[in-house]
Design a protein that fits this description.
By secondary structure, the chain is an alpha/beta fold. The protein has helices at 9-14, 53-62, 102-106, 154-160, 176-190, 205-214, 224-233, 258-266, 283-290, 302-312, and strands spanning 37-41, 66-73, 79-81, 114-115, 119-120, 166-170, 198-201, 219-221, 241-247, 249-250, 253-254, 270-274, 296-298, 384-387, 390-393. The strands form four sheets. It has an eight-stranded parallel β-barrel with strand order 1-2-6-7-8-9-12-13, surrounded by six helices. Strands 4-5 form a two-stranded antiparallel sheet. Helix 5 runs parallel beside helix 6 (205-214). The longest helix has 15 residues, at 176-190. The chain starts with 8 loop residues before the first helix and ends in a 5-residue tail after the last strand. The relative contact order is 0.17. Residues 1-8, 14-23 and 334-398 have low confidence and may be disordered.
Length: 398
């Protein structure tokens, strides 16, 4: 969902060990019953061209519970599903997204730089680009149309996946104003939707504030400043927030651990953990993060997460909601036993427990599991090959 965190996030992390006043709980949060979700990040950008219909179809077919997408404003006032403010990284064109119409963006080859197992890679002489030409029709991919390899619009995605939950991140070209403009258009497009399976998020708090004002019926994740306030002083999160979407680690500090997840759950919020360079996107790390009792993981390798879920027997979302497994029920604070005589001054409050590295609740891959409290390292990238129209894992030499 995010490729880098800005400097002020450091304040957030310093606060992890400090005591806070509990934030106001979110009443009847439906996302606390959606455990545990495979929220395919950009459709799974290590396994398929990011933010393409091809990637979304693939993730949905293999079992992903939710799609994570990004939206940018186009020249003609539409919303394109693309991560960056420019088309340079993922397509065969260059230039700002907001300088192209939606029709022009759909015609681009969004699989042009895709390298299996490595997402987008430019000018790598050793790389092979198996899906180049699929957008133009020069290469056929079974079960897919050329348009599945272009840049889709938000309406394209929501129409294609009416029954699959979608997490939408508001993007911009750098200025706060650009985020506000995207938020306004997004609110306009969603204002009349009857869907109850959408979450909207952004780093920009002002964009989320405007969005909620215009489309209050749509659930949101917390913006960056709101998250910092929540960590530092227990400031209640804004109305409409249902989830905390946070990196696994930041600057070598573990963010997602059992203590944090328990606190968020007690306060009424779901926790969605994103990777995007904050921790290895591999099976060992997925298992460790599942052990912290998060509500969702945002993997770049959704097929690998599915394998881990199957191996661990992890519960998945079901109609009507899924209660947390017993070992994931947060410990409720208890009042102290009355004493005699009564204290003459207020008793000090008990601070939140010091964050600790999560202990695995399932059989551990102790020899391969990385320490989430260390500086993020480049994950191992197993070879992935093209088979039967899909880009999938295969035991091939690197």
């Amino acid at each position: 969902m995010r490729t880098a965190a800005v400097a002020s996030l450091s304040c957030l992390l310093i606060a992890l060990g400090s005591s806070t006043t509990a934030a106001a709980p979110t009443a009847d949060n439906p996302w606390l019953g959606q455990r545990v979700m495979n929220m395919a990040h950009s459709g799974g950008e290590d396994e398929a061209p990011m933010n393409t219909m091809y990637a979304f179809e693939r993730a949905d077919t293999l079992g992903a519970d939710m799609l994570e997408i990004d939206v940018q404003l186009t020249a003609d006032g539409d919303l394109a599903v693309i991560h960056d403010a420019t088309v340079d990284d993922s397509t065969d064109h260059t230039g700002r997204v907001d300088s192209f119409t939606m029709e022009q963006l759909r015609a681009m080859d969004a699989a042009h730089w895709f390298v299996p197992g490595r997402s987008t890679v430019h000018d790598d002489p050793s790389a092979q680009y198996p899906l180049r030409g699929a957008r133009s029709g020069d290469a056929e991919v079974a079960g897919h149309e050329p348009t599945d390899f272009g840049v889709p619009s938000l309406s394209d995605v929501l129409e294609r996946f009416p029954d699959t939950p979608v997490n939408i991140e508001i993007k911009g070209s750098g200025s706060t104003q650009s985020y506000l403009e995207t938020a306004e258009v997004l609110a306009g497009q969603l204002a009349r939707t009857q869907r109850e399976d959408l979450i909207v998020g952004s780093f920009e708090d002002e964009a989320l504030e405007l969005f909620h004002e215009l489309a209050p019926q749509i659930d949101m994740s917390a913006g960056q400043d709101a998250m910092i306030g929540y960590y530092l002083s227990g400031t209640p999160l804004p109305e409409g927030v249902v989830a905390l979407q946070v990196p696994i680690t930041y600057s070598g500090i573990t963010v997602v651990n059992r203590a944090f997840v328990d606190r968020a759950h007690r306060d009424g919020y779901a926790v969605h953990a994103w990777f995007s360079g904050s921790a290895p996107d591999d099976a060992a790390t997925y298992e460790q993060v599942i052990g912290t009792c998060v509500d969702a993981l945002m993997p770049s390798r959704p097929s690998v997460l599915e394998e881990v879920f199957d191996e661990l027997g992890t519960e998945r979302p079901t109609p009507g909601g899924t209660a947390p497994r017993p070992e994931c029920a947060p410990d409720e604070p208890t009042d102290p036993e009355p004493t005699d005589p009564a204290p003459t001054s207020p008793a000090p409050t008990t601070p939140d427990p010091e964050p600790t590295a999560p202990a695995p609740t399932q059989p551990s891959r102790s020899e391969t599991t990385p320490d989430l409290g260390t500086e993020p390292r480049e994950p191992e990238r197993p070879a992935i090959v093209q088979t039967d129209g899909w880009v999938s894992d295969a035991p091939a030499a690197r």
